[in-house]
Amino acid sequence: MKQQIARELGISEVEVPLAVHVPIELAKRVSEKEVFDARANVNRSCTATKYIPEIAEAARNRPQTSAVPEQ
After folding, report:
1. Single pTM value for the model
2. Are 16 and 57 in contact (CB under 8 A)?
3. Coil, strand or helix at 40
4. Residue 6 burial by CB count (10 A; 0-12/13-18/19+): exposed, middle or buried?
5. What sign does the CA torsion over 32, 54, 17, 3 have?
6. pLDDT tens-digit series, residues 31-69
7. Are the beta carbons of 71 and 44 closer than 8 angstroms?
8. Beta-bridge mates of residue 70
């Protein structure tokens, strides 16, 4: 996934943040989780398992942060 994001952004793979804050709806789409609520995911974090263009934009527009998505 990092390679695809780097290619999309025209940057090197090492420049792609390991974690970014994203809206919950985007996190649901890239992590492909059916249930993404406080009971199912206490830390509200996820690992992207699916590439969508919006995740590349999130990496471009947001500084590297913890893996906790925005609410």
Report:
1. 0.65
2. no
3. coil
4. middle
5. positive
6. 876 566 655 555 677 888 889 999 999 888 865 554 444
7. yes
8. 23
